[in-house]
């Protein structure tokens, strides 16, 4: 993989003139975008028309479905450890209050209108989205959104994907790269299309992926948490650069060859255990 510098963002053709006002964006999120809000709000050529946070992020499931799903992804022991969580009828359906509060606080301190909806795809949510008359949507950490949502802004929407598209589409971030013994992690800003993470790339960069066996051993979960935290700052910078490039007409759209990669999904318990086994083999003899 060849690393791309943040400055190497170059032409979105046929962009209608917005010289009479700042370039207007709307942010759609499940949370975690507060640093991006702070950064993009400081850009004089960009107007953040609004932030919309979707509160219901998972489908409602009965107790049996929750247990079956938990066993698939966390195993029986992990499931037994979180049984009180499973007994909560809404525990996996609604974002924690701290998530929405941090986004709301970021919007407030930057004087940006902030809204919550339980579903981006409801008619009322689409009407709200249309009311912003945004030039561009910014998708930051959401579930899959349909064309009725991502195509509502004048130029469509861009998505932050922490992965090397087209080789790594879907998620979760870092796990599959570690499983495949990659040496880098990609961060990609791309236009949103109907299929997951397949739209034209606007900006991309890479960071090193180095697993320290002496610190983490088979406890890769801590490693994933730490490296994902390290991805926040460069992700914010890359998205800000991309939005500015689109706004001033200097962004180049690079079509993806999706035959080169695949879409990854949430790893099962068996796949997590396979990674532990691979790490042991990979670092055999390492102190």
Summary keywords:
single chain; alpha/beta; Rossmann fold; seven-stranded mixed sheet; two-stranded parallel sheet; 9 strands
Structure overview:
This protein has 287 residues and is α/β, with parallel strands linked by helices. The protein contains eleven helices and nine strands. The chain has helices spanning 34-40, 63-81, 83-87, 97-109, 123-131, 147-150, 175-179, 213-216, 220-230, 232-247, 269-282; strands at 23-29, 46-54, 114-117, 136-140, 157-161, 168-170, 184-191, 201-208, 262-264. A seven-stranded mixed beta sheet has the order 3-2-1-4-5-7-8, covered by helices on one side. It has a two-stranded parallel ribbon with strand order 6-9. Strand 4 (136-140), helix 6 (147-150) and strand 5 form a beta-alpha-beta unit. The two termini are 29 Å apart. Mean pLDDT is 87; it is low at 1-17 and 88-96.
Summarize this structure briefly.
By secondary structure, the protein is an alpha/beta fold. It is built from eleven helices and nine strands. The protein has one domain (23-57, 94-282): 3-Layer(aba) Sandwich (Rossmann fold).
Shape: globular
Strand order of the largest sheet: 3-2-1-4-5-7-8
Oligomer: single chain
**Class, according to the CATH hierarchy?**
Alpha Beta
CATH topology tier name:
Rossmann fold
- H and E order: EHEHHHEHEHEEHEEHHHEH
Q: State the fourth-level CATH superfamily.
A: Formyl transferase, N-terminal domain
The fraction of residues in strands falls at: 15-25%
| Uncertain stretches of 5 or more adjacent residues | 1-17, 88-96
Query: How many distinct folded domains?
Result: 1
Distance between the termini: 29 Å
Computed over alpha carbons, the radius of gyration is: 20 Å
